[in-house]
Amino acid sequence: MRVLLVDVLGQGEEGRKATIDVIGAGPRAVAGVLERCGVDVDLATYDRISKVKLRRYDALFVSAMTVDFPAARRVLSIWKRIVGRGIAVVGGPLACNPYDALARAGFDLCVIGEAEQTLEELIERNFDAEDVKGVGYVEREDVVVNPLRPIMPRESYDQYIPSVEVVRSYPLFFASRVYVEVVRGCSNYYRTTLPLPDGRQCTGCNKCRTGELEERYYCPVEIPPGCGFCSVPSTFGPPRSRSVKKIVEEVEGLIEEGCKRIVLSGSDILEYGRDLLVEPEPLTDPRSPEPNYEALEELFSAVKSIPQVEKGEVFVGIENVKACLLTEEAAKLLGKYFAGCPVHIGCETGDEEHARAIGRPSMPREVVEAVRRLKRHGLQPYVYFIHGLPGQNKRTARQTVKIMREVARAGAEKITIYRFQSLPMSAFEDMPSGPPAARDPLSMEIVREGERINLSLKEKLMGSTVKAVVAAKYPKIPNSLVAYPIYHGPVIVVRGSSDLIGAIVNVRVTGILSSRAVRGEVLEAVRPSRG
Length: 531
What we know:
Number of domains: 3
CATH class of the largest domain: Alpha Beta
Number of helices: 16
Radius of gyration: 23 Å
Structural class: alpha/beta
Helix content: 25-40%
Shape: globular
Distance between the termini: 30 Å
CATH topology of the largest domain: Transcription Regulator spoIIAA
Strand order of the largest sheet: 3-1-4-5-6-7-8
């Protein structure tokens, strides 16, 4: 069997709107399972599907988020028109709504939740989906959804190795941030207290916040765990950490393929190893115990000791943390290994009452303090907010604007604002997504303040020197190139010839092009091998 795996993550309605220098961990994990099962697999990105000889393949796999529904359906339409045979499978967040994935988009199968064991069983049974847990399929024009598969134990999860070879199928792999999953799941088993459209509402039993770890799994009225807008705990369960050995082997493999920017990822890097502190109980408390400092040190030290990383030819960063876990000791540890690296913190709303109501594990004031701690230890704090959330009102919007200003004064170097999107398997699944900010005055207050803060922060970049990887030609300006900062930051447009593509450069920021891009001047270029 030969499978074509298509990554449409982040395509949205009209092509890729999310940052294009990102290679997620999901498609590589799927490719790794297929390779493990002896299946020939090739990966293609959405924008290159027209260049693929589709008739060479026996099956189509698509990895997609909920917002990628139009792109996933277009890929399937092309497949059916040109190939007209073979099974079509969709996975990722889009698959968590089987009706959308099967009845509306037209796929034959959808894999819900953790894919590894489900895919192995499907391949072993030649895609006979009957009684396979974690699968939805169409039978006699009806959508059939089998029971969810139990979350894998840590030992089972650690046996699966994501593919490193398929990373070369991404056009800008050598300049992209390649995500390596080090911990899966989320410990926030708090629940929203907002009334849900189907009549469910928190009874006030408080077990999800004060009960024993095992008790927090269960809600008497079956409200999904976690922040109301998030589906990670429902989909992937509580945190489970991979072994340092497997993580290091994957990073080394990606470096061998030519990757230069690698991100150790998870819903919170500080969850890594916390599950080991409570085993065999599930880690369902987002605040206690504190981070497993010993496990984190072991992981960071091992990855940073890889020769290419030590020599500065490859850059390894981190991403998300919960403010409630960012102790002074944790911030010091992150600063020891990742000084200069951006660290993202979710705040979402600046109103404490609203934060509790939507199930947040950290309060806004804790976010402000976390920003200060990161800044003290040489890191670059980025803070997330969401407009259009259920429960948003004049008070919550004004408090959010206030906290945005406070985190900026505390040292935040970027404010990221998303519009609320209702996600399958989240508590807010049946809530309407937030309207565009242009149609909602309260959301517009939040968005405009974020734009104002980010513009002022970009002005501070003027004259600074940034290390970046040159990725490609910049089509809008002749003789110009696009460069991506080694960790994260605004796109940099520089003058130069295509000979610089693939080089690591030191760039002086000379101007601001937009809210997402700056102009720069190349000061120095270094060319490590692409592998």
